[in-house]
Design a protein that fits this description.
68% of the residues lie in helices and 8% in strands. The chain contains five helices and two strands; from the N terminus they run ααααββα. It has a two-stranded antiparallel sheet with strand order 1-2. Helix 4 packs antiparallel against helix 5 (114-139).
């Protein structure tokens, strides 16, 4: 059986994935002050990677992207839970929100928050969970 030529789909997928990934990172970074955050950003990144899997061969993408999604889920849970535990170690309530403004060399004045670390943990959990579920269903040959 001859493999179909999906050159048009693969070419468009590269552009679409770039746009989706850019917007998902924007949502992740802006989520603690406006709508968005780790959950929506993780779902959008998972959809971009899913487009990659649909456009190209599943086996070749798995060779190129060698992530263990179960470990990424654990890392995300660790980020999210450590955000709450660290605040308790300093005598504050669980998940107490802290923020401050810092001047970084290239970016200028940037607000850094503990909610960003929590959102990053949620981002990793949602991204890896969605891809684990989708890829497990896709790999089922029955």
């Amino acid at each position: 059986m001859q493999k179909p030529n999906n050159m048009m789909l693969q070419t468009l997928a590269r552009l679409i994935i770039l746009i989706i990934l850019s917007f998902s990172i924007y949502l992740l970074l802006a989520g603690h002050n406006s709508p968005g955050g780790g959950f929506v950003g993780g779902l959008m990144t998972a959809s971009a990677i899913l487009i990659l899997y649909l456009s190209f061969d599943l086996k070749s993408i798995q060779k190129a992207i060698k992530f263990d999604y179960i470990k990424i889920i654990g890392m995300g849970l660790l980020f999210a839970s450590l955000t709450g535990v660290v605040s308790m170690l300093f005598g504050f309530p669980f998940l107490k929100h802290f923020f401050d403004y810092f001047t970084l060399p290239i970016l200028g004045e940037v607000e850094l928050t503990t909610a960003m670390v929590f959102d990053l943990g949620v981002y990793f959990v949602v991204l890896a969970s969605a891809l684990t579920i989708i890829l497990t269903i896709a790999e089922d040959d029955k």
